[in-house]
Write a structure and sequence with these properties.
The protein has 6 helices and 9 strands, in the order H-H-E-H-E-H-E-E-H-E-E-E-H-E-E. The protein is of the alpha/beta class. It has a single domain, classed as Vaccinia Virus protein VP39 (Rossmann fold, 3-Layer(aba) Sandwich), CATH 3.40.50.150. Helix 4 links the parallel strand 2 and strand 3. The N and C termini lie far apart (about 35 Å).
């Protein structure tokens, strides 16, 4: 992979700006619905109310959590996606994940299929940023496709410019979270078809800020 980190960010931002609200046409898969229900149940059990939806996209998950009674703030690197979130009545802000406002503090961070766009060289800084905005004992859900060790540009579907993906092995994902101070609660795999890519599954990591 010969792109700089800045080029990776620009490429992914442009890809999501281009698809805009059309991304809303993609239904939420049943297994993703089950994952966020697990997160909802965890948050209710811990009494956590303030949820930061990172890489919120069109706000499909953020709107669902808000409808479940949580106070939701959405963040996305794409200006267009932030506008779509706001059109759904959600509080939304455009920020890179490693540049969240210093005064933010939330009970939980929900990151569904967004950190896989972060180059490995930047991952520690991004995770540290998410760790920083969490209250002590706060909940962190990190879900993404992975299970193999690879960084590459994927071209396909509506994303004509291509998007950057960083897949992590389960061990590397766990180690990345622990390095910045997260305490792992659980890491489980969801068996899904991902672009006919053998060895890839969905990784669902739940952690807390210790």
């Amino acid at each position: 992979m010969d792109l700089s980190n800045a080029e990776v960010r620009d490429r992914n931002r442009a890809a999501y700006d281009a698809v805009g609200a059309a991304r809303d046409d993609t239904p939420v898969e049943l297994w993703k619905a089950h994952e966020r229900e697990r997160v909802r149940d965890l948050l209710r059990a811990t009494g956590h109310q303030r949820v930061l939806d990172v890489g919120a996209g069109t706000g499909v998950h953020g709107r669902w959590f808000a409808d479940q009674g949580f106070a939701v703030v959405c963040v996305d690197a794409s200006r267009v996606m932030v506008e779509v979130c706001r059109s759904k009545g959600l509080e939304a802000h455009q920020h890179d994940f490693d540049a969240l406002p210093a005064d933010w503090q939330v009970d939980a961070v929900f990151a569904m299929n967004c950190l896989l766009h972060v180059p490995r060289a930047e991952l520690e800084a991004v995770l540290a940023s998410l760790h920083r905005v969490l209250i002590p004992g706060g909940s962190f859900y990190w879900g993404q496709y992975g299970g193999i060790d690879r960084e590459s540009i994927f071209r396909g579907g509506a994303y004509t410019t291509g998007r950057f993906f960083s897949y992590l092995t389960d061990a590397r994902m766990r180690a990345a979270a622990e390095t910045v101070g997260f305490e792992i609660v659980e890491l489980h795999a969801v068996d899904v078809d991902v672009h006919d890519d053998p060895g890839v599954h969905f990784q669902a990591l739940t952690a807390r800020r210790s």
